[in-house]
Each structure stands twice: as structure tokens, then as C-alpha cells.
Design goal:
It contains 10 helices and 13 strands. By secondary structure, it is α+β, with helices and mostly antiparallel strands. The protein folds into 3 domains: 107 residues, 2-Layer Sandwich (Beta-Lactamase); 104 residues, PAS domain (Beta-Lactamase, 2-Layer Sandwich); 206 residues, Heat Shock Protein 90 (2-Layer Sandwich), CATH 3.30.565.10. Strands 5-4-8-7-6 form a 5-stranded antiparallel beta sheet. Strands 9-10-11-13-12 form a 5-stranded mixed beta sheet. α8 links the parallel β9 and β10. α6 packs across α7.
Length: 433
């Protein structure tokens, strides 16, 4: 319509050109509005809005309306559709809720929320109260994989940080993706001797992860090491007692045969040789326990048919960085391994040198055995290595533990047979981190 109310269009052609009867004052003032009115087609609802040209001048008005009857008809037609859509949505929601509920109950093994809360509380209490380390590793082995569960004791034994634990923080030797269980495997860290049990976890025939239980056997291993040293000393004494008995019988027989001078010469010569060896070691080695260990190993080697020699270069003063227990562990295990390895040769021999060189303690043990490849030595330093049966074979791993603790080195060097060399600073040194 024009601003003067003249109609340009209408649903009834006879009304075109006539004046619009409704209220247009607000539209003429620039306001769009709606109103309910009694129109020519019956009760209606209409909206009126002004129309402007490009210069902003009011050039006309537009009035659009619809009867209430038409609205009612459209609403009546839409109700079934609305009800159908609403019903379908409700049914879909119910089905989805049922499916989600069934899935959740299946994943929670049919337990209700209060049962889950109770189980979690008990699980958390048990997890943090048991005295063994517990680690649960998921089936995935990607670089970003994390340990699913780790308790307080496992964090202490493995020096793990608080919070989520990446799989890379677990020692590599404990991350073997092996489906078979492992019982009482010995693993060595820089500070501890750990006994680890590995059990695969399965659910409905599918493997879902691995459970590791970890026990600290550091103190027990130290006691066993001391016991082994005592046993070695006892074997040495038994061997010496046996040899002394043989010598005594020989001397008595010489006396009975009237060979008194020969008996005296035999007795004094044996005593002189033995005493010279004892005096040389006691003067050359400052630590009495180490000197006693070397004497005991010589007797043990002789009884086992191995020629063990302490070289003339052996001379070791005080070693502030190592205590007596560590010295015995270090030298004793190297010599034991050498004796065992040398017996594979026709003429077994072992040569031991303990000395100071450039502010370092050097322990070199050579033998007539087949030697070790660099790969075998690395394996031995990591977990324990031996060709011996049973649970033996931790010697080199224990040696490596002492060496690493004091910032030293353990290497295999060329020799007539095999030679392992340990170098450790004589001064007090901070253990490597």
C-alpha cells in the first residue's frame, strides 16, 4: 500500500485501489509491529512494516496477515507430525538408554554404582597397603603407553615419579611382552636386587595386560653374599685341613722310616711357602677381608683343579669409596666366574691382579675360558648371565651394580683367554644418577 493507505494488492481483487482500514500510524513512524484484528476475511493476525527507497524516503507499507482459522488448520495438521516425531524421539531415547545401560552394566560386570564405589575403596586400600610392589601394564606397547596401575611400594623400589607413569620409566628388562608367566626372576637396578614375578592377565580368552609383583631382596642378597664368602672361607679351611692332614701323615711316615732330616726339611719347606704367600698378600692388600678372600679362592681353585695365580703387581691400599662388603662382592664374583669359565679348557688357569693406577682401583681377572662377546657382557651386566643351571649366574650383574654405584667401568679386554677389568675411582665419588 502507499503511505496514503491505497492498496496495491489484496487477496480480493475488488479491494485493490481502495483504502486500507487498519492502523498504520506506528509503521508510518518507522516501526514494524504485529496486531490481532477483525479483518475482511475474519479474525486475523497481521504484521505491518514500512518500505524505504535507497535515499531513506518512505515509499510504501507492507501488511501481511493470516486468519486464525488458517493457523488452527495448520496447527491441527502439524499435531500428528509433531506427536509422531516426539514419540519416535522418545522411543529412540529409550532404546539408546537401554543399550547404553546394558553396555555399562556389561563393562562394570553388572555392579551398581554403590558396589563400584565400595570395590574401588577396597581396591585402593589394598593396593597401597601391601608390602610388595605391584605394576599392571596394559596390552599396548606404544611409545606413549602408560602403566595402568602402580602402587606406592613399586614407586619406591623402581624410583618412579608421582603421577602417571610412562612405560619407558619401567626398566626395560621388566617390559618383556611375553605371554608366558615368569616366577622369581632376579632384576638388578643401580641400588637394589629385585625379585619379579610376571603373570599375564586374560579376560574371556583375550590377553588384556601383564601383572608384575616386585620384592626387594637387596638385604637378603647382601647376606647371601656374605654367607657365600663365609662358605668359601670354610671350604678353604677344609681344603687346608685336608692338605695339612696329608702332609702330617707324610711327615709321620718319614719319621717312622728314620728319615728325620727329610721330614724336617719337608715340613719347614711347606710352611715357608705357605707363609710367604700369606705374608705377601697381607702386606700387599690393605683390606684383611679381601686378602682372606684371595687366599680362600686360591685353596678353592686348587681343590677344583684350577691354577689360580695372584700376580706380583697386586698391591692395594685403602679404598675410601668402597667398603669391605663391596670389595668382597666385586672380587669374589669376578674370581668365581673366572674359575667356572676356565674349567672348560684343558689346562684351566686364572690370573688375578688388584692394584692402583692413576687414582683408580683396577681389578683384572683373566682366565683360560672361551671369553665373552660385548653383547653377552651387556646382558650379564643388566640381569645376570651364566651358562650355569639353576638360579646361579648373578655374579657379573652384582659386580656391575657395585661398579655403576661408584661411577666405575666394567670392560672385557683382549687376553690369552678371557679378561674382565674393573676400574673404580679410589676417592669418594657420588653415585651416578
Amino acid at each position: 500500500m502507499a503511505p496514503d493507505r491505497t492498496r496495491f494488492t489484496h487477496t480480493s481483487p475488488e479491494l485493490i485501489g481502495q483504502l486500507f482500514n487498519g492502523n498504520i500510524d506506528r509503521a508510518l513512524a518507522g516501526v514494524t509491529f504485529t496486531e490481532t484484528y477483525a479483518g475482511s476475511l475474519g479474525p486475523s493476525i497481521r504484521a505491518v512494516t514500512p518500505v524505504y527507497d535507497s535515499g531513506g524516503t518512505l515509499v510504501g507499507l507492507v501488511s501481511a496477515g493470516v486468519t486464525r482459522e488458517q493457523i488452527s488448520k495448520q496447527f491441527a495438521q502439524s499435531v500428528p507430525v509433531i506427536l509422531f516425531v516426539a514419540g519416535g524421539g522418545l522411543l529412540a531415547a529409550l532404546l539408546s538408554s537401554l543399550l547404553v545401560s546394558r553396555r555399562i552394566r556389561r563393562q562394570t560386570l553388572g555392579m551398581a554404582p554403590d558396589e563400584l564405589r565400595t570395590m574401588y575403596e577396597h581396591h585402593d586400600a589394598v593396593l597401597h597397603s601391601i608390602g610388595e610392589g605391584l605394576v599392571v601394564i596394559g596390552q599396548g606397547r606404544s611409545k606413549d603407553a602408560r602403566v595402568d596401575i602402580v602402587n606406592d611400594e613399586a614407586r619406591r623400589l623402581l624410583d618412579l615419579p608421582d603421577g602417571p607413569v610412562p612405560l619407558s620409566s619401567i626398566p626395560e628388562t621388566m617390559r618383556v611382552d611375553d605371554a608366558s608367566p615368569a616366577k622369581d626372576q632376579v632384576h638388578l637396578t643401580d641400588k637394589r636386587v629385585l625379585v619379579v614375578n610376571q603373570h599375564p592377565v586374560e579376560w574371556e580368552g583375550n590377553r588384556i595386560g601383564t601383572v608384575l609383583t616386585i620384592r626387594d631382596h637387596t638385604e637378603l642378597q647382601n647376606v647371601l653374599g656374605e654367607l657365600d664368602s663365609v662358605r668359601s672361607f670354610a671350604e678353604s679351611l677344609r681344603s687346608q685341613a685336608h692338605e695339612s692332614a696329608n702332609r702330617l701323615h707324610t711327615i709321620i711316615t718319614m719319621v717312622e722310616l728314620g728319615r728325620n732330616e727329610d721330614a724336617v726339611a719337608f715340613a719347614t719347606n711347606e710352611l715357608r711357602v705357605s707363609q710367604q704367600l700369606i705374608d705377601r698378600l697381607m702386606n700387599a692388600v690393605h683390606e684383611p677381608a679381601l686378602a682372606a678372600l684371595l687366599l680362600g679362592k686360591m685353596s678353592e681353585a686348587t681343590e677344583r683343579g684350577v691354577d689360580l695365580t695372584i700376580t706380583e703387581d697386586t698391591a692395594l691400599g685403602p679404598v675410601p669409596s668402597l667398603n669391605a662388603r663391596e670389595l668382597v662382592t666385586l672380587v669374589g664374583n669376578l674370581v668365581d666366574n673366572a674359575i667356572d669359565a676356565s674349567r672348560a679348557s684343558e689346562s684351566p688357569w686364572v690370573e688375578v691382579t688388584v692394584m692402583e693406577e692413576d687414582s683408580m682401583m683396577v681389578v683384572a681377572v683373566a682366565d683360560s675360558g672361551p671369553g665373552m662377546t660385548p653383547e653377552a657382557l651387556e646382558k650379564a651386566k643388566g640381569r645376570g648371565y651364566s651358562t650355569k643351571s639353576g638360579s646361579r649366574g648373578l655374579g657379573l650383574a652384582l659386580v656391575s651394580q657395585v661398579v655403576k654405584r661408584h661411577g666405575g667401568t666394567l670392560t672385557s679386554e683382549p687376553a690369552m683367554g678371557s679378561m674382565l677389568v674393573v676400574r673404580i675411582p679410589l676417592r669418594e665419588a657420588e653415585a651416578p644418577r
